[in-house]
Design a protein that fits this description.
214 residues; alpha/beta; TIM Barrel; 10 helices
Length: 214
């Protein structure tokens, strides 16, 4: 399974968003926008659909919804053709029927349905949804803030998911560095999402090649 690197934009202002998106757009065909509402997580980020729609860029988008009411945000973004995947948080919904409803809602709109799970959430809690999801987002840190240290206990969760679901796309986000990327991939992840790692590197092309070789 080839490893894909996805840059994340956890940004608080439109001005910074424009600059960083333009930089990433040169190298990536998919960019993740971190949408934090200040309620589900303490942090609040920029994810104004109307302003983003006005920008010209080539990359497609995936959304990581760190929000209390995922459906409300999904409805704002669902007709924007650049949005290919949306992750909503298991911990924001915590209701089996509503989770199934959101997965169905996304799939009917031809958007890949992803479930994001916090480090402390146990596999038993969300395992039943994995057969119908397009992908799962395993957080290596507490959601909402960049620059945190990856929690190694997550590796066991990734291994268990990969063993039970050999073909499922497993994305890992939070604390991903060159030093730990190898063991995350070895555990079974095939997509690595990273913010600081990519935006602070001097040579993005070389970084992409290093990740692809894992």
């Amino acid at each position: 399974m080839k490893v894909k690197l996805v840059p994340t934009l956890l940004i608080s202002t439109f001005a910074e968003f424009k600059v960083k998106l333009a930089k990433l757009d040169e190298y990536f065909d998919l960019v993740q926008i971190d949408c934090a509402d200040g309620e589900f997580v303490e942090n609040k980020t920029f994810y104004d659909i109307d302003k983003i729609k006005g920008l010209f860029f080539n990359a497609d988008l995936e959304l990581h919804l760190m929000v209390k009411n995922p459906l409300k945000v999904i409805k704002k973004w669902q007709n924007y053709k650049k949005v290919k995947k949306i992750f909503f948080h298991y911990e924001a919904v915590k209701n089996d029927k509503k989770i199934l409803g959101l997965i169905d809602y996304l799939k009917k709109r031809k958007i890949k349905a992803g479930l994001a799970v916090n480090p402390e959430t146990k596999l038993e809690q969300f395992k039943k949804f994995l057969p119908i999801l397009d992908l799962v987002l395993i957080l290596g840190v507490k959601p909402g803030w960049g620059g945190q240290e990856f929690q190694p206990k997550i590796l066991k969760k990734i291994k268990e998911i990969r063993k039970a679901f050999p073909k499922l796309a497993i994305e890992v986000d939070g604390g991903v560095k060159l030093e730990n990327a190898g063991e995350i991939v070895k555990a079974g992840a095939n997509i690595l999402a990273a913010g600081n790692l990519i935006l602070k590197t001097k040579n993005i092309e070389s970084l992409i090649l290093k990740i692809q070789k894992l």
